[in-house]
Each structure stands twice: as C-alpha cells, then as structure tokens.
Amino acid sequence: MIALLQRVGEARVDIAGETVGRIGPGLLVLLCAEPTDTEAVGSRLLAKVLKLRVFADEQGKMNRSVQDVGGGLLIVSQFTLAADTRSGTRPGFSGAAAPALGEALYDRFVAEARAAHPVVATGRFGADMQVHLVNDGPVTIPLRMTA
Length: 147
Hints:
The protein is of the alpha/beta class.
C-alpha cells in the first residue's frame, strides 16, 4: 500500500459541494492499494501512520505522533499514487489495485483506524472529491508498505 501523509492544520473533503469529511489539526492520509496488498499490509501501514513522529514536541522537534497530540485522521482513497510515469506523458495506473480490491482494503483500513483512533473522517471511495487542506510546515511524508 502507498500512503502520502500531510500534516495539516485542518482539512476537508467535498463531494458535489457537500463536505463529507473534516478534521482540525492532524494528518491527511492519501491511500492507494496495490494488486498484491492484503489486510495485513494495511494493518502494518496504519500502525506506522499512527506512531510516526511528525508533530513537534516542546523543543520544536518532530517527536510526537498523531496519537500523542490527539490529532485527527482524514483518510482519502487516491489510486493515482500508483501512477507509472516512466514512459510517455500520460500516466498509467496498472500499479493500482482493481477497484473491488482497492475499495475492500480502503474500507478495512478505515474500520481499523476508527477502532484505534478517536477522530477519523473520510472521503468516499471512487468519488470525484475536492480535498482542501492547510499543510502545516509543510510536512509531507510518503510511505509504502509491502507484503
């Protein structure tokens, strides 16, 4: 699985003019499943997301996790993270999981996040979403977890 984390002061997802997910300070998690991913891969990725120290401590060092600071998670599916841009000028997306697998793994990731963390909001799998965020720092961290 591929995740792109952005530390945010706030973030929201709108679909057709309606806000479907919103958080204050926390992490925007853009999430992409790949064809060989499993629920176990998603569980390991979530554990990493929750414990990754990207928030400042009293000395200003990135020494605290989203759990440590009580921040929110906004989890948004984004198959384009698997884009293959090695040739030509049009990205290919064969590196992304098929929609049924991608949705199942996304749903499982969200369910586990909700069980492990108190503030979790989402977008909607497969929807045309507008993601609004205030990137704090800016801090943007790519993560990849494989089987």
